[in-house]
Automatic annotation (TrEMBL):
Chain spans, region Disordered: 74-93
Listed GO MF terms: 2 iron, 2 sulfur cluster binding
GO CC, alphabetical: cytosol; nucleus
Pfam families: BolA (PF01722)
Protein's name according to its UniProt entry: BolA-like protein
Amino acid sequence: MGVTKEDVEAAIASALSPSHLVVTDTSGGCGASYEIEVVSEKFEGKRLLERHRMVNTALAPHMEQIHAVSIKKALTPAQAQPQPEPAADKPQA
């Protein structure tokens, strides 16, 4: 049996203490491919490449069994907040 979704979640949760984490098994159930969205305060002040390295480091014990990891989002809590929509120009009456 390969790496489970729960294994990936536990590894990331332990290393990054995320406030939001979504792990999707994209391998059809064999545990070889995952998509990840993670929001963590530990990403503050880090560039995107550093954030991805942090996720990959957290998964290092499992990487021999994982074929592909796609990190869709690696955000700080502030970046994860919905951005206000710009006010539409209203015609003058």
